[in-house]
Each structure stands twice: as structure tokens, then as C-alpha cells.
């Protein structure tokens, strides 16, 4: 509590234990606000908090699984117990899955929807009304270049990022003239653990695209948000990728992305147990339709 008994504005970063969230937390801390770091790994959060404090900033840690019941309420309770309010929310927790939608485990796919869509929407919708009442602050949501096109073989991930961009851009417009900003950040590949955990680093599409550093993305995201931007696309390669995705007709784009994101060793969606290329992908049958009599 401040001497006047008031709560202080904080930047709350969800997904702050590593990657882009950690980098945004570090950039935001340099602007002087207390940073609340949330993710599941308590130890990693403590390390990030130590680094922020060593650099002269103020940091709190909240080990939290945003998929747990009441996670958003727990976060609000933590803020209130520490005489803080959420001035800026950064939604950086997210994961990707690569593989045929009919082959990937259903639970993992639905878990992606819960994290990338439901948790992001809940945190945003719970914390925005307070910001609007105070006429300050806002939300940074991590989208992706993937939000600009459907993505065969990463179907739910691309769709989830499409949701994040659509939701964020609509809120940006709704909140015009309220003093509150909602910014969607849409990077291309960034050198973080995400590329390995999502399986993206094993596919041709992600191999050919240049990788950005998370510090660079964080700097662009934070400055863009502060400037009231609706959409931040860090780096020239991401801008060109998006231009291509919006100009090239879907009839060309979707088979191209599918081809680049599929691996010959992927199990065939038809359930034969063979790999895709040896089974339905053989002899140019790139749509995954089992050839008759095989
Ligand atoms: N890296 C890329 O190439 C790239 C490109 C475009 C967009 N993005 C997007 O940017 C965002 C951040 O990606 P990143 O590259 O920084 O990924 P990352 O390095 O894998 O970090 C993900 C963060 O989310 C946290 N997290 C995951 N599940 C959680 C849960 N249930 N509850 C709370 N926190 C959870 C993780 O911490 P714990 O494991 O400790 O919980 C970690 O801090 C994601 O939304 C991603 O889709 C990434």
C-alpha cells in the first residue's frame, strides 16, 4: 500500500518464466512499474524476478497454472493482497502442436484451446473492466503470423492465433477513447523453447523463416503497446510473410503450407500405421485421401 493507502499499478505477465513473456517482463520493468510474473515453474519465475531486481526493478512471483479452476481469481487475490492492481496484462502463455488433426491426441488439442483461447479470454475479460473504470492501462496478447492464414498440420494452433488477433483487434476498436489499449503482437518464429515443444522446429516452413530474438520482439511489443498500436508485427520477414498470406489465394496457400508443415515420417491420418508419404501421400495424393485398394 502506498503512504496514501492506494493500490499501485502493476504489469502482470502471464507466461513469464521464459521466452517472449520473460523478455517483455524485463523490458517493462525498465519503465519502473512493479512486475507480477506468473507461470507454473516457481523456480524459473524466481530467477526472472532476481534478474529484474538486480537491474533495479521490482518483481513479484505468482506460481500459477492458468488452466486451474479459479486461476484468474487467485491472481486477482494476489494483486489485492499486495496492494497492486493490474494496469497492464500480458498474455504470453501458449503452446503449439504440429501434426494431423485426426492423429494428434484429442486431450492435447483441447488443452491448446483452453490455454491459447479460453484462459487468454478469461484473464482479458476479468481484468479489462477495472482498466476501463480507471481509464488507463491495457492488454498485450501474443498472436502470431499464423493468425493470418489457416495452417494445415498445425490446424488448431493457427486457428487459436486467428482467435487471438480477431478478439484483440475488436477490443482495441471497442475501447477507443477509453484510455485503454489492446495490442496484438504477431511475430514469426522466435528463438524460444516454443519451437521445440510445438514441433515447429522440425518442419520445413519454420526452418526457412528467419528466427527473431525474444528481446527484439519484447522491445517492439512494449513500445508498440505504449504507442497505442492495435497490431505489432516485429521484423521485416514477419511483415512479408503476412503480406504473402493475405495476397496469395487460399487454393494455393493452403496446399503450400500443408506441404511445408507435413513431414514424411508423420503417421498417416487414415490410421494405417504407415507414414503419410508411404501411404496416402504417395504418388501425389497430397490431400490425405486414401488411394482405392491400397
Ligand atoms: N516462439 C515463437 O516462435 C512464437 C511465434 C509467434 C507467436 N508465439 C506465441 O508467443 C507466446 C509465447 O511463446 P514463447 O515462444 O515465449 O513460448 P515458451 O518459451 O514456450 O513460453 C511459454 C510460457 O507460457 C507458460 N505457460 C505454459 N502453460 C502455462 C499454464 N498452463 N499456466 C501458466 N503459464 C503457462 C510457460 O511457463 P511454465 O511452463 O513455467 O508454466 C512459459 O512461461 C505463445 O502464445 C506463442 O504461441 C511464439
Overview of this protein structure:
With 294 residues, the chain is α/β, with parallel strands linked by helices. It has 2 domains: 8-263, Rossmann fold (3-Layer(aba) Sandwich); 264-294, no CATH class. Helix content is 44%, strand content 13%. It is built from 10 helices and 7 strands. It has helices at 19-29, 42-54, 71-81, 106-134, 155-174, 194-197, 204-208, 214-226, 236-247, 250-261; strands at 8-14, 35-39, 59-63, 84-91, 138-142, 181-185, 231-232. Strands 3-2-1-4-5-6-7 form a 7-stranded parallel β-sheet, sandwiched between helices. α2 (42-54) links the parallel β2 and β3 (59-63). α1 (19-29) packs across α8 and α4 (106-134) packs parallel to α5. The longest helix has 29 residues, at 106-134. It is globular, with a radius of gyration of 20 Å. Bound molecules: NADP nicotinamide-adenine-dinucleotide phosphate (NAP).
Put the structure in a nutshell.
The chain is of the alpha/beta class.
Q: Tally the helices: what do you get?
A: 10
Q: Which second-level CATH architecture of the largest domain applies?
A: 3-Layer(aba) Sandwich
Helix content: 40-55%
Uncertain segments: 283-294
User: Are any ligands bound, and if so which?
Assistant: NADP nicotinamide-adenine-dinucleotide phosphate
Q: In percent terms, what proportion of residues is strand? A: 5-15%
Report the sheet with the most strands, covering strand number, pairing sense and barrel closure: 7 strands, parallel
Radius of gyration, whole Å: 20 Å
CATH superfamily of the largest domain: NAD(P)-binding Rossmann-like Domain
The CATH class of the largest domain, by name, is Alpha Beta
- In which order are the strands of the major sheet placed? 3-2-1-4-5-6-7
Structural class, please? Answer: alpha/beta
Could you give the count of β-strands? 7
Helix and strand run: EHEHEHEHEHEHHHEHH
Query: Could you name the CATH topology of the largest domain?
Result: Rossmann fold
Number of domain units:
2
Distance between the termini: 71 Å
Return the average pLDDT rounded to an integer: 91
Inertia-based shape: globular
Amino acid at each position: 500500500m502506498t503512504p496514501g493507502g492506494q493500490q499501485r499499478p502493476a504489469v502482470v505477465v502471464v507466461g513469464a518464466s521464459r521466452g517472449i513473456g520473460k523478455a517483455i517482463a524485463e523490458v517493462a520493468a525498465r519503465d519502473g512499474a512493479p512486475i507480477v510474473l506468473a507461470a507454473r515453474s516457481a523456480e524459473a519465475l524466481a530467477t526472472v524476478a532476481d534478474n529484474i531486481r538486480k537491474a533495479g526493478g521490482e518483481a513479484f512471483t505468482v506460481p500459477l497454472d492458468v488452466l486451474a479452476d479459479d486461476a484468474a481469481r487467485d491472481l486477482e487475490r494476489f494483486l489485492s493482497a499486495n496492494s497492486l492492481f493490474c494496469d497492464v496484462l500480458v498474455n504470453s502463455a501458449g503452446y503449439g502442436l504440429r501434426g494431423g488433426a485426426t492423429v494428434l491426441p484429442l486431450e492435447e488439442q483441447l488443452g491448446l484451446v483452453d490455454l491459447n483461447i479460453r484462459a487468454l479470454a478469461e484473464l482479458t475479460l476479468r481484468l479489462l473492466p477495472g482498466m476501463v473504470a480507471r481509464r488507463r492501462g491495457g492488454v498485450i496478447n501474443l498472436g502470431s503470423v499464423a493468425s493470418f492464414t489457416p495452417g494445415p498440420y498445425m490446424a488448431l494452433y493457427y486457428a487459436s492465433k486467428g482467435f487471438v488477433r480477431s478478439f484483440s483487434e475488436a477490443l482495441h476498436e471497442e475501447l477507443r477513447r477509453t484510455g485503454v489499449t489492446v495490442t496484438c503482437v504477431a511475430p514469426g518464429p522466435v528463438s524460444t523453447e516454443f519451437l521445440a515443444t510445438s514441433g515447429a522446429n522440425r518442419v520445413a516452413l519454420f526452418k526457412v523463416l528467419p528466427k527473431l530474438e525474444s528481446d527484439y520482439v519484447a522491445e517492439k511489443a512494449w513500445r508498440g503497446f505504449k504507442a497505442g498500436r492495435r497490431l505489432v508485427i516485429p521484423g521485416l520477414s514477419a511483415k512479408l510473410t503476412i503480406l504473402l498470406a493475405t495476397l496469395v489465394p487460399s487454393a494455393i496457400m493452403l496446399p503450400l503450407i500443408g506441404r511445408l508443415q507435413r513431414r514424411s515420417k508423420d503417421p498417416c491420418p487414415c490410421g494405417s500405421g504407415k507414414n503419410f508419404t508411404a501411404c496416402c501421400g504417395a504418388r501425389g495424393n497430397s490431400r490425405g485421401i486414401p488411394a482405392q485398394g491400397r
